[in-house]
Amino acid sequence: MKKGMVFLAVVVCLVGAIPAYASGRVWSEVADNTAIVHHDSAWFNCCADMSFEIKPNPDTAGIIDIYERDLGTHPCYCMCYFDFTHILEGLEPGTYLARVWEASYDEEYTLAGTTIFTIKAQLGSFSTTTLMSDCYDAEGAEEPPSSPHTGLELTNASSSPTQQSAQIRYFLPTQTEVLIQIYDVTGTRVRTLDLGSQEQGEHLVIWDTREESGQPIPRGIYFVRLQAAGQARSLPLIVLR
């Protein structure tokens, strides 16, 4: 083995244990320079006692973390959907990435979704308000029903600062050639993963968060672009160090 050679640890495998259902949909809108972040169809206990915390990320500018937790004070024997609306006023001008995290009782937070929005002018000081819908479509089960895939899906992209890697999950509607490209916020491509032909189904790629040269990329916001089956899908990726 020659010294100085760079080996790229890209692990590709078919994942059968990934749940087909993600808890709800995260999206955003801006009205009068007020950001409104929605988490629709969040899956919690029917008698959820919700706690919300919204705060800018202290380590990375432009990232806002929204935490949703069921305190589990008086749980019921059923699960249902809720719609949460987080209103953020007084943000400084700029483009933001909001991350919505969810947890039940004493569980660890998991990422429910991300969304990007732009504020053009600051109005007042920073403040937040959260609105919560009534429980709907209750079911006497502990897991939400499976949601069938309808086509190419890039379902999740997240990084692990402890492992110095990023996980990219996606679903292929048919056997096809797969190409994943990573871009920074300026639109510069920093890495290409040519994964060749893969079978239909759910897949996981573990990327070592390094450039083509083998150098670690700086922490910050990146974008993952999945190309397969004549289509393309994109998701933001936050790399932490």
From TrEMBL:
The UniProt keyword set, sorted, is: Signal
Signal: is it a keyword of this entry? yes
Identify the residues that the record assigns to the FlgD/Vpr Ig-like domain, covering every copy.
163-229
Q: Output the InterPro entries linked to this UniProt entry.
A: FlgD/Vpr_Ig-like, Secre_tail
Instruction: Tell me the first and last residues of the signal peptide.
Output: 1-22
- Start and end residues of each stretch annotated as Disordered: 137-158
Q: Write down what this protein is called.
A: FlgD/Vpr Ig-like domain-containing protein
